[in-house]
Amino acid sequence: MGRRVRLLAGLLALAEIVVFVLVASWIGVGATVLAALTTSVLGWALLARQGTRALTELRDRARERRAPGRALGDAGLIAVGGLLMLLPGFIGDVVGLLCLLPPTRFLVRGLLARVLAGRLPAELRGPVHVRSTRTPHVDGAPGSGATRVGRPMVIEGEIVPADDLRGREQAQP
User: Fold this and answer.
1) Which of 36, 39, 60, 133 is a good FRET partner for 82, with 20 to 30 A between their CA atoms?
2) Distance, CA of 97 to CA of 91 (rounded, Å)
3) What distance in Å separates the CA atoms of residue 139 and residue 160, rounded to the nearest whole number?
């Protein structure tokens, strides 16, 4: 795992250098350095503004004894986004901007949730909660499934993860 992280960090640093050189050859070295400094200042300002909002939301939730929920995730994304904006590099600036701006933060949150949930072992994933409701029986309705007049038929079952279901289908001839 550590080897992959080091490899990914090295590739990201190399990509940042390549993008920096390409931008410098396109608009000039002075303008590129100025753009990098401007994005750092913008990141600092966005971090201060969005970070204050996120911390206020967390404080309010703690005061009301509510679970932090999405506010805690937002605070983490804002911290990561601010750090990426403060570091030099245009790729990190774009990703940091996506983390800092509220309209685009849900995209990063959804992507991270999908990636992390896919990597968790099945036993560490949260339980599945299923709510069932009984509907009143309509006499004479075709396909109502009633065993006795006025009483709906109840079907017992279990929830099986898709991976287990595929394994069962392959095991049966």
Assistant:
1) 60
2) 10
3) 33
